[in-house]
Specification:
Blueprint lengths: L11 H4 L35 H4 L8 E10 L5 E10 L10 E6 L15 H4 L4 E5 L16 H15 L4 E10 L1 H10 L6 E7 L5 H6 E2 L2 E2 L4 H7 L3 H4 L8 H4 L14 E6 L5 H10 L4 E6 L15 H11 L13 E5 L4 E5 L8 E7 L5 E2 L6 E6 L12 E5 L7 E5 L2 E8 L5 E9 L5 E10 L18 E6 L3 E5 L4 E7 L14 E6 L5 E6 L1
Parallel strand pairs: 3-4, 3-5, 5-6, 6-9, 9-10, 10-11
Antiparallel strand pairs: 1-2, 2-4, 7-8, 11-12, 13-14, 13-25, 15-24, 16-23, 17-22, 18-21, 18-24, 18-25, 19-20, 19-23
């Protein structure tokens, strides 16, 4: 097999790619591989030798005093909250003034003993407020997740905490998923006493990261909508285009206001990793990113848990202002999945990355020289089930001669035409082992009528060829020597997106001057 000609200032041998013929059917990546779990990892992979992650100090208080309070809001309503305060030996609130932390502000009715998750910080001199958002638990009103009203309530909560006689006036906020989104959204509202945040698995934009992926409604979110906020099944469907409804629920639309110190905790197996990376790239001076080998949720208990010490270091630095408290040694601390280990970088993508451009060949190859121009066609899948071979096209490199590290986005530039007046495209990138088993690395989606942005739908003319740019979620992934990189293009990726493309066919332009894949490699 002839080596790939890599279209950058490097040799094919340096990258270690060779061409491959069309994969046999048994080796084709499964289109439902989105559910692939994170691979097993050692229980405690070593963290970087960074004082930030090794930070700790003894508890100053032996217990936590918990009390139920109602926090007044500007419109006369209130939030139901539990305050967790450092306790004196007799169990009463300890005297003194303390920084405050809004802890996981969400709609999941977490008041009561479950709020004790903040006890580690409370016994080290912080007051934690655990609250139900408006319309959830004992907080009255109408639940509208991430709305302007919910953000204003969060603002009022922070300012109320800062004004209490036991408060130093310096408040932080943290949370995971819903609570991570809330932390970022309240920060761009700029409450005067918010000093720092730690969002875990948070958004840059609720529309793009969660509801309409590439302009296509995500089936995955509907169970959450039904169980938490069923009215959104109506309201979200009423806003298929990006408008002021979504701008109100966006961090991206107000990035200029994200000016407090931000410690983002992300996972390379999490659905919000793109939002976390985008926030870092938009606000490089005040955002730090730690991205580990984690699925969705608090890293605690997951492989390579960073421990409470790093969070404490962040609060001690920005809230308690303890002299000498360390920051992360680098702007980005990233675990190279599936199991290589931690690395630290000053930016993302890291300095020294190299672009690699590969073409999609008519014979199923993924190569620098994809061969003569050609067209191949697949049928649109209109059902929420895995599509058959005729409903997707797959392309693959040959076995890698040496390890290849992907560090950034994979971008697809797909040249396609549709027999219908619109269409969906899903691009899935996978790691194919020598035995044919595959692991999903990343994916991206686009509704053809949203090719110029999500603010308006531009009609598709059947039969006309369009150049469609499809971004995938960022990754830090090592493809091992002997493995291949596979790319599958189809109209469906259920349940990541709805199977709502109109019936018909999609034709891809392949070979020279055809569709291409752009890797970012270390």
């Amino acid at each position: 097999m002839k080596p790939l000609k890599i279209m950058v200032a490097m040799s094919a041998a340096a990258l270690g790619l060779t061409c491959a013929p069309t994969l046999p059917a048994a080796a084709e990546p499964s289109p439902d591989a989105a559910t692939t779990a994170a691979p097993s990892l050692p229980p405690t992979p070593s963290l970087p030798p960074d004082p930030f992650f090794a930070y700790d100090r003894p508890a100053e208080y032996r217990g936590v005093h918990r009390e139920r309070v109602t926090v007044p809001l500007r419109d006369g309503s209130h939030l139901a909250c539990d305050l967790h305060r450092p306790a004196a030996p007799d169990g009463t609130p300890a005297p003194g003034r303390f920084p405050g932390i809004v802890y996981d502000y969400n709609a999941y009715n977490q008041l009561g003993p479950q709020g004790q998750a903040a006890a580690y910080f409370v016994t080290r001199g912080y007051v934690a407020a655990v609250c139900n958002v408006r319309g959830s638990g004992d907080s009255p009103g109408y639940l509208d997740p991430f709305s302007g009203q919910e953000q204003r309530d969060n603002y009022d909560l922070i300012e109320w905490l800062a004004a209490q006689p036991w408060s130093t006036g310096r408040i932080g906020q943290t949370g995971v998923s819903y609570g991570g989104h809330s932390s970022l959204l309240v920060a761009v509202n700029k409450p005067p006493h918010l000093a720092a945040i730690i969002p875990v698995d948070g958004i840059s934009d609720w529309y793009e990261n969660t509801i309409y992926r590439g302009g296509i409604y995500s089936a995955r979110i509907r169970d959450w909508q039904r169980s938490v906020a069923p009215d959104t099944l109506v309201t979200y469907a009423q806003h298929p285009l990006y408008d002021d409804f979504w701008r109100e629920r966006s961090v991206k639309s107000r990035w200029k206001n994200l000016d407090v110190p931000v410690l983002e905790i992300a996972g390379w197996y999490d659905r919000y990793r793109q939002g976390m990376v985008e926030n870092l790239q938009a606000r490089e001076r005040n955002v730090w990113l730690v991205s580990g080998p984690w699925v969705h949720g608090w890293p605690a208990g997951q492989p390579a848990d960073i421990g409470n010490g790093a969070y404490l270091a962040w609060w001690d630095r920005w809230l308690a202002r303890r002299p000498g408290t360390p920051l992360p040694a680098a702007r980005v601390t990233s675990y190279e999945v599936p199991g290589t280990g931690w690395r630290q970088f000053d930016s993302w993508p890291p300095a020294g990355t190299r672009p690699v451009r590969l073409g999609l060949g008519a014979d199923g190859t993924l190569a620098a020289d994809p061969g003569r121009p050609a067209t191949r066609t697949f049928e649109v899948n209109t059902e929420p089930v895995a599509g058959g071979p005729g409903q997707r096209l797959s392309f693959a490199t040959g076995p890698l001669q040496r390890d290849l590290v992907l560090a950034g986005e994979v971008q697809a530039k797909v040249r396609a035409s549709f027999t219908a007046a619109d269409g969906n495209l899903a691009v899935v990138v996978q790691d194919v082992a020598p035995d044919g088993t595959s692991t999903r690395i990343t994916q991206g989606w686009l509704k053809a009528s949203h090719r110029s942005g999500h603010e308006r739908a531009i009609p598709v003319r059947p039969g006309k060829t369009y150049d469609l740019d499809i971004r995938t979620w960022p990754t830090h992934y090592r493809v091992a020597a002997g493995h291949s990189i596979s790319v599958t293009v189809s109209s469906d990726d259920y349940p990541e997106i709805d199977s709502d493309a109109p019936a018909g066919q999609v034709s891809l332009r392949l070979g020279h001057s055809g569709s291409t894949i752009h890797l970012t490699t270390l």
